[in-house]
């Protein structure tokens, strides 16, 4: 006999209850799917808030930039001094209540399979669901990227990734090397430098500080580039990382006092620090990798969505290799505004799919 939990049938499963998952669930519910029965939202995190709940508490709401509200409910009067994890956690919780989205958590999806009878089978640590369509909205937080640098395993100090960072306190009196050219690296450096014995900033490419306001055309071009990549089946690049580093007073001070003096990427890690080919070395107690994230899509592997180029080929939010599968918050929609729009588009297409209309052919 089959000792596995019985399979619960539903119309649509949404995996992930961050901005992307909630936005899509909202639009699906508006189109008539009933949360809890016809629409099942599964989230592996313990509380509402998507990845925000896991981010370090010194990342205040005032520091995160350009967060777009979830569809239908504004986030008003939030205190910019409070941690973004708290502000967005409360906001997402209120949103889920208001629209009665019935998110099941913590439920971790291990894998999604084709049941060979036209349905998708979603296997989790808390049961199995069988659905006619799937929305994957698992973000990137759970897939931190660690570059492969020679000597990494020989380092005697501590190595951590932005995903493990809990704040500057744990860096007190340490010699810290921060790797990465994005906003997270800059924020880490600015708050670690006053407490640490020393900080060293290392990036592959020279960082670009944005001295003018963010140019929406530039943003659109960045999204279009990522869109072309995923249509071609290549791994997406981050759309939020191409906007340049925002300039503010703290950054200006950091550039003046040397905290934001950047060194080119080192060539190897030694047991005691990092080393460049020209013989230069920097001793370190901690290497903090602020080197970004990749889409958290391993559980989709059994569906065979990947192209030889390494990415999942997409047409809008729809996976080209399986039109029942939509990826929201992936590639060009991996920003809060992109996730909102993609959620609406995915809901519209899934509605058509459930009504028996075939997706437009390529
Ligand atoms: P997430 O918020 O990551 O939600 C995904 C959810 O899926 C999580 O709850 C996770 O637990 C769950 N999940 C993952 N895998 C599984 C699984 N196998 N089974 C079940 N559940 C699973 N964007 C902006 O627009 N403005 C900003 O200011 C901004 N600041 C940022 C700052 C930092 C430090 C970082 C890292 C990113 C920032 N971003 C910002 C990007 C922003 O986080 C994303 O655009 C957006 O919030 C991601 O939403 P999401 O719903 O796709 O993913």
Automatic annotation (TrEMBL):
It comes from the Bacteria. Keywords: Oxidoreductase. InterPro entries: Auxin_biosynth/cation_transpt (IPR050982), FAD/NAD-bd_sf (IPR036188). The keyword Oxidoreductase applies. This is NAD(P)/FAD-dependent oxidoreductase. The lineage of its organism: Bacteria, Bacillati, Actinomycetota, Actinomycetes, Kitasatosporales.
